[in-house]
Design brief:
Shape: elongated
Strand content: over 45%
Helix content: under 10%
Number of helices: 1
Structural class: mainly beta
Amino acid sequence: MSKPSPSDHPSRSRRLAPLLLLASAAFVPARAHAQVEPALNAELGGPQIVSANLGIRVPAGPESWRGYGRGFVFQVQPGVAGASLNVGWMPFAFAAQGTQAIGVGIKGRLLRTWGSPWGADPDRTYAGLEAAAVIGVKASVGVLWKIGSGSGRTTVVTWGVGIGF
C-alpha cells in the first residue's frame, strides 16, 4: 500500500476557502456588489511600525443608508514588523476627493509579528479588536491577545496614525 501524496489530500485551508467565500457572499446584498469600494491607507504605528491597509468596504443596510458609507471592511495589512488580516464594521464613513474624510469603525484583527515590532514580541500571533476614527487623518487603538503558548507578552496595545488614499 503506497503512502498518499500531499496532492491527494488538499490542505484544510484550500478546502475551507470556497466555503468561506460562499458564506461571506451570503451576507452581501446583491445590489451591493456593484458598490464595493477600495479601503486603502498608509499607517505609522505599533506593533507593525509602517504598514499599508489594502482592502475593500462592502455597503450594508437599507438603500437609504448607503450614502453614509455604512458597511463591512475586509483588509490585509502588510507592514515592516508584521502583517494582519482585518474584518470590521463601519457604521458611517464619508469620502471626499477619493479618500475617506470622516468615519468610525471597529475591526477584529489577526496579527503575525516578525523583526522588531513596537510593543510586541517577534514571531508571535495575536488576535483582538481595534477601533478607529477618521477626521482627515485616521487614528486607531486596540488590544490584542497572544494566541498559543510560549513566553512573552500576552497582551499588546495597538495604535496607529494614517492617511487614506
